[in-house]
Specification:
The complex is a heterodimer of chains A (about 110) and B (about 120). With about 110 residues, chain A is an all-beta fold. Chain A is built from no helices and 11 strands. In chain A, the strands form 2 sheets. In chain A, strands 2, 4, 5, 6, 9, 10 and 11 form a 7-stranded mixed sheet that branches. In chain A, strands 1-3-8-7 form a 4-stranded antiparallel sheet, with no helix packed on it. By secondary structure, chain B is mainly beta. In chain B, strands 2, 4, 5, 6, 9, 10 and 11 form a 7-stranded mixed sheet that branches. A 4-stranded antiparallel sheet of chain B has the order 1-3-8-7, with no helix packed on it. Chain B contains no helices and 11 strands. Chains A and B meet through strand 4, strand 5, strand 9 and strand 10 of A and strand 5, strand 9 and strand 10 of B.
């Protein structure tokens, strides 16, 4: 099975900061990597799918990119409502895997 | 609008089974694969398996094979996930989620807390 790792696990940042979260796959995957935001007590919310496509309604400060087996979620200017945990996910015809998550906290 | 409404919280004893439901509305039920994902307290997201609501075909994570049964009732647009042989480490919030055509999950149920305790 494909394993996903995320770094960092925790991130302290201030409002207005540029934040980057990395997700690495244990083996080559196709373009089907997605990013989710989850707040306490809530279901995950889809932010980006197919590596870099912004889900409808998601602010443009969120973006996704890829370099080989490394995927990146960037928040260009962190807003108060962005403090949450972020997960990457790979999904194919046979399996699904989530990364362990990155918690973004207020510095 | 798309809605996934799950059944209420459950408390079960070790060794028992639990069946969680997920009622879909606002879209063509048989048009989208559906997933079950769980999250133990303070932990990350764990994929359990998926079902094709049109055919009923399923595939599950190896960890849950033999313990999880995913079914659907197309007449009422409802999915079911039954987990047997419950253990304390099955205590988690269980979610249903809709698969998109671009291999992501765009709509999620509100979650069902299953507590396993003697």
């Amino acid at each position: 099975d494909i394993q996903l790792t995320q770094s960092p696990s925790f991130l302290s940042a201030s409002v207005g900061d540029r934040v980057t979260i990395t997700c690495r796959a244990s083996q080559g995957i196709t373009t089907y990597l997605a990013w989710y935001q989850q707040k306490p007590g809530k279901a995950p919310k889809l932010l980006i799918y197919a590596v870099s496509t912004l889900q409808s309604g998601v602010p443009s400060r969120f973006s996704g990119s890829r370099s080989g087996t490394e995927f990146t979620l960037t928040i260009s200017s962190l807003q108060p409502e962005d403090f949450a945990t972020y997960y990457c996910q790979q999904l194919n015809s046979y399996s699904c895997t989530f990364g362990p998550g990155t918690k973004v906290e207020l510095k | 609008q798309v809605q996934l409404v799950q059944s209420g919280a459950e408390v079960k004893k070790p060794g028992a089974s639990v069946k969680v439901s997920c009622k879909a509305s606002g879209y063509i039920f048989t048009g989208y694969f559906m997933h079950w994902v769980r999250q133990a307290p303070g932990q990350g997201l764990e994929w359990m398996g998926r079902i094709n609501p049109k055919s009923g075909d399923t595939n599950s994570a190896q960890k849950f094979q033999g313990r999880v049964t995913m079914t659907r009732d197309t007449s009422i647009s409802t999915l079911y996930m039954e987990l047997s042989g419950l253990r304390s480490d099955d205590t988690a919030v269980y979610y249903c989620a809709r698969n998109t055509y671009t291999f992501a999950t765009d709509y999620w149920g509100q979650g069902t807390l299953v507590t396993v305790s003697s």
